Amino acid sequence: MFDVKKLILLGLVVSLVAFSGCTEDQASNESSMTMTEGILVVGTDPTFPPFEEKNTDGELVGFDIDLMKALGEKMGLEIQFVEQPFDGIIPALKAEKFDCIVSAVTITDDRAKEVAFTNSYFDAAQVIAVLVDDDSVQSVDDLAGKVVAAQLGTTGEYEAQHYAEELGFEIKSYEVMADAFIDMENGRVNAVVTDDGVAQRFLDTKPGVYKVVGEPMTSESYGLAANLDNQELIDALNAALAKVKEDGTYDEIYAKWFDN
């Protein structure tokens, strides 16, 4: 004869396990793309104008910032920015400090081993900036024996390191790009290797102080980055990127920051 009490107890246990399983699956599905439902936490280093910087009121502004806000609207997600120095931004992403990165991150093979990238959203190049009255540097070969500045962890720093070994010059790395240009004005470095859009921003900010010389050192593309196991977020970001390019939003943001 069946023990009714045992059957009832067994039924409760089975139901509890099934209910718990459904709850975990639902929670996993709801939060798999972002750490917090409805919110996309984005890491950025606001020291790289005009892509990301702080205005006089301490607010985050820039091309990347506006683009990320537009993507958030397309995705139906609130955007929250977290500031992180660039040389530690990928480790912070992997430690789940934020869901993704927007910070003028160049897509490279080495970085693609650590993070997943979206489709390219911006084309760039590494260039050499010097003081406007300095005619001693006309090309990368003229950097031999000089002191060259670059920002920590950037492809500008990587490219400078590559040529430093070949040509023989000293590299001085900075956390903040503006400090590199200030030191160049004060004679502490002879040249700055940085992205062309960034160099142009400093040229525009101080007309007659800096100039760009020689041919571009690289041809690069920026991408948004997420963790390797978050393809769902990458797909959603790519879909949103396609939408802002199709409806003209991207062109409006570009014109705001680059069409002088």
TrEMBL record:
A Pfam entry, by short name: SBP_bac_3
Alphabetical keyword list: Signal
Chief location of this protein within or outside the cell: other
TM stretches of this protein: none
Source organism (scientific name): Methanococcus maripaludis (Methanococcus deltae)
SMART domains for this protein: PBPb (SM00062), PBPe (SM00079)
GO molecular function, one term: ligand-gated monoatomic ion channel activity
GO-annotated cellular components: membrane
Domain Solute-binding protein family 3/N-terminal: 39-260
Protein name, as recorded: Polar amino acid transport system substrate-binding protein
PROSITE patterns named in the record: PROKAR_LIPOPROTEIN, SBP_BACTERIAL_3
Subcellular location: Cell envelope
Annotated Ionotropic glutamate receptor C-terminal domain residues: 39-260
Matches recorded under InterPro entries: Iontro_rcpt_C, SBP_3_CS, Solute-binding_3/MltF_N
Key word Signal present: yes
Signal peptide: none
Record's keyword annotation contains Transcription: no
